[in-house]
Amino acid sequence: MKQLRAYARMHRELFAISLKREPRITVGTMACLVFGAIAFAVTGLSMKYVVDSMVERDATAAIIAAFLAALSFTLDRSISGVYYILQRELIDKVGHIDLDPAIMRAAGTLPEVDHLEHTEFLDRMTALRNKAWAVIWSTLLVGEACSMALRLLLALAILGTTSPWLLLMLPCAAVQLILDRRGQAHEKQSELDLAEDKRIQDHLFELCLSASAGKEIRSTGAAPELLERYGAAADRARTTRLRGQFTGSLWRIAGWCVFAIGFTISIGLVIAQVQRGTATAGDVMLAATIGAMLREVVSRAVSSAAGATGTIRVLEPYLWLREYAEEHRETGERKPAPERLTDGIRLRNLHFTYRGTETPAVEGVSVDLPAGSVVAVVGEYGSGKTTLMKLLAGLHRPSAGAIEVDGTDLSEMDIESWRSSMSATFQDFGRYHTTFAEAIAIGDLRGGSAAALDAAVAAADADSLRSRLPDGDQTQLGTRFGGVEISEGQWQKVALARSCMRPAPLLFLLDEPTASLDAPSEQAVFDSYMARSKQIASATGSITVIVSHRFSTVAGADLILVMKHGRLIESGGHDALLSAGGTYAELYGIHAASYS
Ligand SMILES: Nc1ncnc2c1ncn2[C@@H]1O[C@H](COP(=O)(O)OP(=O)(O)OP(=O)(O)O)[C@@H](O)[C@H]1O
């Protein structure tokens, strides 16, 4: 019931959006539905007056009534055509222009990223992809179902007031529809049953035409056998289809027989009323006209209602996304990010467990990241390094504990302001299929200048990539839009350059920034990053956090955090950790040996 109310509210809102955006088309669509229903009733009533006027020998009235009947019938038919054109227009204009961006906005601007990572949510996001048209279409289908219900009510009112016996036609029309559907189901089933024989035919046909199998077919002399099998499969498919169509037709004939019997009895009863003088000849004509159209009205009412229900697979995720976005929007007064860092970032007993999992990915992490420091996070696979980075970026809310930025809890900070004060590149960096310059400049849309682009490219050691691009900065990246394909390492350099577009971020997160690079490029990038981090740090107290598997690259960091199973097991400077002889010293030793 709650869900039904939610759907009804959503349809009302969609109708309001549609009315606001395209008032003429929306009103036109609704008018088509209402006028269609009225024209349907007028056709039947006019036919009644044609006959009654003729019985009364009033030729003028009969001609006017006949003209009205023809006009309303034509209107009813042509209105359907206009309705489908207007419906298409609304789907294009409201669905693609309004709803698609609304879905993108709801999904793409939420502060956190759970809805993009958790499978239950991902399924819903997939169902919504490019499906906004189905959302508005469902509202139109509801309108269509209402209009068909109106036709049905009018038909029943007309039939019922003419003679209650005529209402017998309704169950007969419903039975006809049910039997007709059963007939269709038989035909569909036969198409499914013959699919395998069709595949056999296709396969044998392909074999005979293929060069590779052709040699074997000739050398083994298998051609006659293949042809025989092809013939047998074709014969089986033909028989299956014929059987399905025959059975389907029998159901259909049975359906029409039921309708014809109901129709004949009803009309016969009205004729009897005419003889008794309680009905007119026109009533017989009215009953015949409306009765003949009744079956189509029932069928269209059922199919639009079924269509509206069928779109629930898109409506449900759409409703869910709206509610989810509403629940997860930041509300209330929030503090802005500081201009510069004085103390640094404090992690207080930080815990985080991913939705749908039991084991915490980060557990009880407490550490101070001093302002102006370069922090390295190391640890084995799955030890919680990336999760820690995402928590620092505010992409997930801690399950317990807190992150304090110069004493302000991140959960009380305006996340937009925090994000615009930081830069980050993650392991699964984006690949923007646009020009080289744009793919980097997107890292700082507010402050991007040619000089900033040059500096970012240099910091990411991407100058040599840039110089080899055929159209320089304007080279289209990726083949999707006819550009050049670049290697994984080159995509990573573009991502790194993008993260360097902000000249002085307060927090600079680098999650495995060099995983796709070769050893010399990796060292060059690290050296350049270390130098850049120190330079930024002196200006704004900025903190750089680097995740890396390669220990040689992190030795120069001011603070090294060693993670294991989500816990922080060691922290300190390189020399201190080495002399402590713990996990870091052990892993560093293994790493140094394998690279020596
Ligand atoms: N989106 C997610 N949903 C559920 N569990 C996740 C998700 N992302 C990570 N995890 C789990 O959380 C734990 C920590 O993962 P995380 O990616 O933070 O580790 P990591 O140290 O960065 O690993 P790697 O070095 O392989 O990148 C792992 O057990 C991982 O399986």
Radius of gyration based on Cα positions: 36 Å
Instruction: Summarize the biggest pleated sheet.
Output: 6 strands, mixed
Our measurement of the CA-to-CA distance between the termini, rounded to an integer number of angstroms, reads 69 Å
The amount of helix comes to 55-70%
- Tally of alpha and pi helices: 22
Low-confidence residue ranges: none
Q: How many DSSP E strands?
A: 10
Walkthrough of the structure:
With 596 residues, the chain is of the alpha/beta class. The protein folds into three domains: 2-163 and 279-325, no CATH class; 338-421 and 505-596, 3-Layer(aba) Sandwich (Rossmann fold); 430-503, no CATH class. The chain has helices spanning 2-21, 23-55, 59-108, 114-117, 119-128, 132-162, 169-193, 195-209, 211-220, 223-276, 281-310, 312-328, 385-392, 415-420, 436-441, 450-459, 463-468, 488-499, 519-540, 551-554, 574-580, 583-595, and strands at 344-352, 362-370, 374-379, 400-405, 408-409, 422-425, 507-511, 543-547, 559-564, 567-572. The strands form two sheets. It has a six-stranded mixed sheet with strand order 6-7-8-3-9-10, sandwiched between helices. Strands 2-1-4-5 form a four-stranded antiparallel sheet, covered by helices on one side. Strand 7, helix 19 and strand 8 form a beta-alpha-beta unit. Helix 7 crosses helix 11. The radius of gyration is 36 Å and the shape is elongated. It starts with a helix and ends with a helix. The model has no long low-confidence stretch (mean pLDDT 86). Bound molecules: adenosine-5'-triphosphate. Adenosine-5'-triphosphate (ATP) binds at residues 117, 354, 357, 361, 379, 381-387, 427. Adenosine-5'-triphosphate binds next to helix 13.
